[in-house]
């Protein structure tokens, strides 16, 4: 996605690193660069707002559940594939049933 306008930071770079921005996992200089981009690029700002809303919704609805280790590994592996531009398998990601943890 690109708005077609020239920017100091390209739209594709911003979108490729959007979750790093959302999760505050980038250096302050990069965060400032992305913030400036959002101020001048409404399509990227819209995408940012949508992803931020989804992240908040997931946290609100699922933030209290323990994630099975194997499911977390599968999801992170799939995200790595997507980020690297590789094809993602069509089958669904499933996890083994959750068993209560001993106290």
UniProtKB/TrEMBL annotation:
It comes from the Bacteria. Residues 11-44 form the Putative zinc-finger domain. Pfam families: zf-HC2. This is Anti-sigma factor RsrA. It comes from Streptomyces phaeofaciens.
